[in-house]
Design goal:
The structure is a single chain. This protein has 62 residues and is mostly beta strands. The protein has strands spanning 8-14, 18-25, 31-37, 40-45. The chain has a 4-stranded antiparallel beta sheet with strand order 1-2-3-4, with no helix packed on it.
């Protein structure tokens, strides 16, 4: 049985205690911003100037 590809991949990450990450859904290509600090965090889709989601086509390595 083959290994299935990851659904979500981290594209960028910065910070240590207060961290921001850009996460890409490999099926839809939609980019999300995830920010967390301590025990709090939030996730939101990244939007362009016309309020459309930013989409990136990503090839996932097995």
């Amino acid at each position: 049985m083959g290994k299935s590809p990851k659904r979500f991949v981290w594209r960028e990450s910065e910070g240590i205690l207060k961290e921001s990450r850009i996460i890409v859904d490999t099926v839809t290509g939609v980019n999300y911003l995830f920010v967390h600090e301590g025990y709090a965090g939030g996730l939101t889709p990244l939007l362009d100037a016309d309020s459309n989601p930013i989409v990136t086509r990503t090839i996932v390595d097995d």
